[in-house]
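Why do we bother with holo predictions? Because pocket geometry can differ from the apo form. Keep that in mind while you read this record for magnesium ion.
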Amino acid sequence: MKGIGISPGLVLGKAFVYKEESLFKRYYVKCQREEVDRLKVALDQAKKEIELIYNESKTLVGEDADIFIAHKEMLEDPELINGIIDIIINEGINSEWAIHKVINNFISLFKLRNNEYIDAKIIDLKDISSRLIRILAGSKLAAPLEWEGELIIIAKELTPSNILQMDKRVRGIVTEFGGITSHTSILSKASNIPMVIGVNNITELVVDGDFIILDAYEGRIILNPCEDAIKEYQERKRQRIKFWELHRVRDRETITQDGYKVKVTGNIAGVEDIKNLLAVGAEGVGLFRTENLFLEGLLDEEEQFQLYKRAVDLLGNHQLTIRTLDVGGDKAIPYLNLPKENNPFLGLRGIRVSLLREELFKIQLRAIYRASIYGSLRLMFPMISRIEEIRAAKALIAQVQEELMKEGIPFEPVEIGMMVETPAAAIHSAAFAREVDFFSIGTNDLIQYTLAVDRDNKNVMELYDPYHPAVLRLIKLVIDNGCRAGIKVSMCGELASNSKLIPLFLAMGLDEFSMDHNLILNSKYIISRSNRGELEGQVDLILNLSTSCEVEKYLDNLITNILN
Ligand code: PEP
Ligand code: MG
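The structure, written out:
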C-alpha cells in the first residue's frame, strides 16, 4: 500500500486501529441542567489541557503551536457552545452527541467553501470535538496495555492533540486523510514520529494486532510481511539509524557511553582543507603537514605567518596542531639540495633536516609564534628518535622567542609536542614525556620502522600489518607513559581512523584521534557507541594474542557488537 510519507522513518510494529466513533453513544439524559453542567466541567478541563499542550508544543514547533490558542478561543465561542447547550436542552440528549451534531453542522457549512484555510479550520473543529468527547467519555487514544513493542496507529485522520497525547508506545502513524502541511503533520515531524498519509481505506484493511512495516521514507506500508521482508527492513532500519546517528554526532563533543570525553580532529595538508573538516564536526586539527606548503617553492616568514594565522582564524575555538617541516623519506623537496641517499627513510628526514638547516627551521618557528596570538595553536616535531633532538629544537625555540621579544613582536606560550613514530621514541617514551607537552603517535611510520616494512613498497604490502601485536604493544606503552607523565596523547597516523582499532585505542586511554575528514563522522560515531570501561578489561587479553590474525578477528567481533 502506498501513501505520502510526511515524517521520515522506518517502523516495524503492531497495528492499533483508531476509530473515534466507537467512543460514544447517543442517549437521552434524565436532567438537562445536570448534563449542561457536565458539559461545562468538560469545557474547563479541555481548556486546561490545551494550555498544557500549548506550552509543550511551543518548544517543539514554535509559532505553529498557536493553533492551540485558536482551539481555546473556539471553546469560548458563544455561537458554538450555545449551539451545543441548546441541543442538550431542547432534545434532551447527551453532551457527546450534541457536540458531534453541532461540530458536524459547522463542518458541513465549511465544506461548501472549498479552500486550504477551511480544511485547517475543519481539523481544528474535529480536534476540539474529539478532545471534549474523550473527556466526557473518559477514554483515551491508547492501545491495550498488554501490547508490547512498537505500535503503529492506523486512523482515518488524526488531530494535532492526538499526536501530542498519544500512547508513548506509538512509533508510527498511518492515516487515510491529512495534509502535508497540516499541523498534525508538522507535529508528527517535530515529535520524530514517522507518518504516512493518504492511504486509501487503511482503517478497513487493517485490524488491531496486524504486523506492519511502515516505511515513511518511501510512503510504503507492508501488511503482515513475510520473514524475508522483515529481515530486509530490519537491516534497512539499522542502516538508516546509522546514517542519522552519524549526522547527530557531528555537532556534538565526542563522548563514550560511559561519559569519557576524547577529541576527534583532522589531518590537513593546507589551510583550504579546514572548511571540509569543520563541515563534518572535526574538533580541531591534530596534524597540519606543513611540508606540503613547500612543494612549489620556499615560503618566507610572512607568507607562512599569513597561512598559519588564517588557519587559526578559520578554526575559531578549536586547536591547530602544526607539525614542523617533515621533508625527506618519500617527501623530497629538490630545491633544498639535500644529499642523495640510498635509503632515504632511514636518512635525512623530519627533525634531522630541520636541525641541519637551522635558518629554514627558525623561519618556520618565528611564523608559528607570531600566529600564536590569533588563536589556539601548538607545534610538534616529526621523526624524533633522540632526546637531544628535542632539546636542540627547544633551544632554537628559545632563541626565536628572544629575538621576537627584542623586536617587540607579541607571541603566546605554545605547547611543544613530538611525533612518536620511531620505535626508539616509543620505547623510550617515559623519558621523552618529561621533555614535551604532548605526544602524537605517527602510526604510518611507526609500523614501517617497527616491522622493517617500507610503507610504500608493493612487494611487502602484506607485511605492513596494523594488527601486529608488537605495534599495538608499542602504542600502549606510549599511551601509558604519556598518561603517567600527565601529558596528552594523540594519534595522527592512519590507524586513528581504523574502525576496528578505535575501541582498542580508546580503552588504552588515547586522548585524541586525528584523521582525514572523510572518516571523522564514522569515528565519532564508533566512539560515541563505545563503553570505555567495558573495553578496558580486554586490552591485556588482546595484546597477549599471538598473531595479527587473532587480533583482527577479536577486534572484528568487538566492533560488530558495538555497532549492533
Ligand atoms: C605518520 O607517520 O603516521 C604520520 C602521520 O606522518 P606522515 O604520514 O606524514 O609521515
Ligand atoms: Mg610520519
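Residues 254-548 form a domain with the TIM Barrel fold (CATH 3.20.20.60).
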